[in-house]
Amino acid sequence: MLILGGSASQPLAEKVAKELGQEPGHLEVKRFPDGEKYLRIYNEVKDQDVVAIQSLYRTPDENIFELLLLSDTLRDLGARSITAVAPYLAYARQDSRFFPGEAVSSASVARLLEYAGTTSFLTIDCHLHRLGDVAKVFKIPARNLTAMHELGKYAREHFKPRNPIVIGPDEEAEQWAAVVAKELDADHVAFRKVRVRKEGMTSSKVEVDAGDIEVKGRDVVFADDIISTGGTIAEAAKACKRGGANRIFVVCTHPVLAEGALKRIKAAGVLKVIGTDTYPGPISKVTVAPVIAAALKS
Ligand code: R5P
C-alpha cells in the first residue's frame, strides 16, 4: 500500500505512513504563474493500492480540486485501487436542499470523487445531519471513522477531570459524548439545541436547552464534531455555569474556529478546548493518524 499526502495533509500522511511502518510516497505539487496546479507522482503506482490523504479544510475548493487531480492521475497511471481519505470532509453539512435551487454539495463532492476514479473513501466524524451515514452519499464503499477515542484519551491524560460528566451540546453529539465518556469512565448526556435559520443566511443563532441535567460541582467535558463560530459550545457552557458546574473542558474533532470563536468559548467559562489535525490549527493537539492507519489495516 502506498500512502500519498496532498499538499494540505503532508504531515498527517507522514504520520499515517509511520504508523504503518513505511515511508510516504513522493508527490510534488506546485503552481504555474497563472495559479494552476502542477502535480507529479514520483512512485510507481501501476497495479498498486494507493491511499491519497487530503483534508478539505480552510481552502476546501482548492483542496478538493487537488484531490480530484490526484485521483484521476492515479487512475490514469493504472493504480489498482485508490482510497481517498478526507479527514475533514468539506461541504458535508449541505446534505439537503433547504431552499429551492440550492446545491446539495455533499452529493456533488461524492460524485466528483467517484468520477475521478476513487474506489473507496474514508472520512472522520463527518456530520451528515439528515443522511446520518457517509455510505449513503457515495456509491463506492465509504466509511466514517471517529476521533473520539483519541480525544477521550487526551482528556483523561491532560484534563484529569474530577467527577466528570461528558455532554454532547446537542442531540446529534450524544454519539460522540458516549465514546469520550467511555474513555473517561464517566456518564454522558446530551443537551437540546435549536438553530434559528433564515433564508439567505449562512449562519444562525443557537439556543441550548440543558433540561434538568445536574452538573453542580462536577467537571464537564463537552464532545462535539465541529466548532465553527463557537456559538453552540458557548451557549452550552453558559448553561453549565448557571447550573454550578466546576471546570469546563471541550474536545472536538474539527476545530474550524471562525474568527472570534475561541474568545467566545473562553468568555463563556471554558477552561480548555482542543481538537485534532483533521483541521490543523492552534488547538489541534491530537492526531488522527492512528485512526486512519487502523482503518487502512482492517
Ligand atoms: C452541528 O450541529 C455540529 O455538531 C456543531 O455543533 C456545530 O456545527 C458547531 O457550530 P458552531 O460552532 O458554529 O455553533
- Oligomeric state of the chains? single chain
Arithmetic mean of pLDDT: 95
Major sheet size, sense and barrel closure: 6 strands, parallel
The small molecules bound here are: ribose-5-phosphate
User: What structural class is derived from the secondary structure elements?
Assistant: alpha/beta
- Given the structure, what is the number of helices? 8
Strand content: 25-35%
How many β-strands, per DSSP? Answer: 15
Q: Which geometry do the CA atoms define?
A: globular
Strand order of the largest sheet: 9-8-12-13-14-15
- Into which percent range does the helicity of residues fall? 25-40%
Low-confidence segments, ≥5 residues, pLDDT <50?
A: none
Distance from first to last alpha carbon: 13 Å
Radius of gyration: 20 Å
Task: Write the H/E string, N to C.
Answer: EHEEEHEHEEHEHEEEEHEHEEH
Structure description:
This protein has 298 residues and is of the alpha/beta class. The chain has eight helices and 15 strands. The protein has helices at residues 10-19, 60-76, 105-115, 148-159, 174-184, 231-242, 261-267, 289-297; strands at residues 2-5, 27-31, 37-41, 49-53, 81-86, 120-124, 142-145, 165-168, 187-190, 192-196, 205-209, 220-227, 248-255, 272-276, 284-286. The strands form four sheets. A six-stranded parallel sheet has the order 9-8-12-13-14-15, with helices on both faces. Helix 2 runs parallel beside helix 3 (105-115). It starts with a strand and ends with a helix. The relative contact order is 0.12. It binds ribose-5-phosphate (R5P). Ribose-5-phosphate binds at residues 127, 169-170, 172-173, 206, 224-232.
